[in-house]
Amino acid sequence: MSSLAIQNSIITDLKLAPEGHLKIDWVEAHMPVLNRIRKQFEAEQPFKGLKVTISLHLEAKTAYLAKVIQAGGAEVTITGSNPLSTQDDVCAALVEDGITVYAKYNPEPEEYKALLIKALETKPDLIIDDGGDLVTILHSERQDLLENVRGGAEETTTGILRLKAMDKEGQLKFPMVAVNDAYCKYLFDNRYGTGQSVWDGINRTTNLVVAGKTVVVVGYGWCGKGVAMRAKGLGANVVVTEVDAIKAVEAVMDGFQVMPMLEAAKIGDFFVTVTGNRDVIRGEHYDVMKDGAILSNAGHFDVEVNKPDLEERSVSVRTVRKNIEEYQLKDGRKMYLLAEGRLVNLAAGDGHPAEIMDMTFALQALSLKYVNDRYKEIGKTVVNVPYELDEQVARFKLESLGVNIDTLSAEQRAYLDSWQEH
């Protein structure tokens, strides 16, 4: 147990650590790819003498990633990336394991931001970000903390959009690896992880049946595809709303109804937003929704479901179950908002399955090593995860599943590489 981590950390209660250790032990047993990388890191010590600050949804799977980075020689500090997804027992366990933690479940907005800043005040050499909050603070409010930062890795679509906007304007001060854009991230984490964990969160929170009801999925990116696929599997009638014509065609060919949000609002029983944009459900939609409509969000920030518009139309708001706020509208209808409009799969659930996050966090760990090894040659820009690392994670995953695949012969490879007449 590290007395320094205990002394420096800001958490709810160190006594919660035993339950947190059990959670971390459980995911460790189900993350074989990350376990393999941990052994590699323990032998090679790629982060020896370096400070790493991590901002991710602070639950057990994230905790194990932090321990893998620590095993690579780093002095690790971690904070949350959403006020409602932090698990206090996991925080306590990490502190006992010598990792400095600045995070609590459901802090006030001012305290939440202060904890992010405290994590950055350790003056990290490397960062792992989720949604771009660390990068934004470093570039706007605390440029005094930029000096040591070699680079980092970003987890989400939302964060990468922010990074690319900074990069386009020439404002980015260090290289960032766009982990979300790697095949082994969005094909599995965004689709199968989000698809399952969103419905885990909704089902455990509402205790209502999905079969036979109409589910409106707002946005048909990889996360939307997963949410729609799992809703269909639960027996729902699925409606997709989109602003992208290509994605809308894809949704139609996948067997879903596609219509404008204003039309979908009239028939939906469950609504799930997964766009990364703001106000995709707003006042005009509430005006035509059915009594009892259930609203949820699986995008990174709590701006997709417009809460001010909902409050403006309401005469009362009360908590009817944990993570369910009932809005009584002026005309008598009731709307139910899950997890304050924050990420329903994490704020009202445990997030993605461990086996899925095994691949995502393997990419994070390898990307962090990549940016540390090459930060000078990469320059101050956003880069993709190299295909070799992406494929390496996939091969490790296949090996853990006991699955073998074919390899190209020399003749086949030469054939594919040739431009001459076949």
From TrEMBL:
Binds 1 NAD(+) per subunit. Substrate binds at D130, E155, K185, D189. Pathway: Amino-acid biosynthesis; L-homocysteine biosynthesis; L-homocysteine from S-adenosyl-L-homocysteine: step 1/1. It is found in: Cytoplasm. Its EC number is 3.13.2.1. Its main location: cytoplasm. GO terms for molecular function: adenosylhomocysteinase activity. It holds the Pfam family AdoHcyase. InterPro entries: Adenosylhomocyst_ase-like_sf, Adenosylhomocysteinase-like, Ado_hCys_hydrolase_NAD-bd, NAD(P)-bd_dom_sf, S-Ado-L-homoCys_hydrolase_CS. It catalyses: S-adenosyl-L-homocysteine + H2O = L-homocysteine + adenosine. It is an enzyme of class 3 (hydrolase). It comes from the Bacteria. One of its GO terms (biological process) is L-homocysteine biosynthetic process. NAD(+) binds at residues 156-158, 190, 219-226, 242, 277, 298-300, 345, 352. One of its GO terms (cellular component) is cytosol. Its cofactor is NAD(+). Keywords: Cytoplasm, Hydrolase, NAD, One-carbon metabolism. Residues 190-351 form the S-adenosyl-L-homocysteine hydrolase NAD binding domain. May play a key role in the regulation of the intracellular concentration of adenosylhomocysteine. Belongs to the adenosylhomocysteinase family. This is Adenosylhomocysteinase. It comes from Paenibacillus barengoltzii G22.
